[in-house]
Amino acid sequence: MTPHSDNALHAALLDSLTFNDDGLIPAIAQQFDTGEVLMMAWMNRDSLSETLTSSRACYYSRSRQAFWRKGDTSGHIQVVKSCHIDCDGDTILLLVDQTGAACHEGTRTCFTRVATADGSVTATGPALPEGGTK
Prior knowledge:
- This protein is α+β, with helices and mostly antiparallel strands.
- The chain has one domain: Phosphoribosyl-AMP cyclohydrolase (Ubiquitin-like (UB roll), Roll).
- 15% of the residues lie in helices and 32% in strands.
- The protein is built from two helices and eight strands; from the N terminus they run H-E-E-H-E-E-E-E-E-E.
- The protein has a four-stranded mixed beta sheet with strand order 2-1-6-5, covered by helices on one side. Strands 3-4 form a two-stranded antiparallel sheet. A two-stranded antiparallel sheet has the order 7-8.
- The chain is globular.
- The two termini are 20 Å apart.
- 19% of the residues are buried.
- The model has no long low-confidence stretch (mean pLDDT 88).
């Protein structure tokens, strides 16, 4: 994704989206070259605008009530390759190039648990390649 600074274009895009009552929209991050689903986080208008402008994934933390750029403290950045909007305009899909762990638990993906038909949940184990960051 090439950084774009056309404020009118960003405003029109943001105005076309459906944010919830808290001003947030869910965003799913997916590894661009493998299709691996990495994480889900929330975005507000400012974090989505910053993501589109900088090509770095930026989110909104509901617990901290603050904007956060993925990887600023951990180094596990997400370079955004493309940004997709679902048919209802109420969910964002970011195709990213993830460096390191996407999950705050230190795993490659946040989706490391499998729910089974009997209602149990099983951990799938570490989701980072051994010794790797990608």
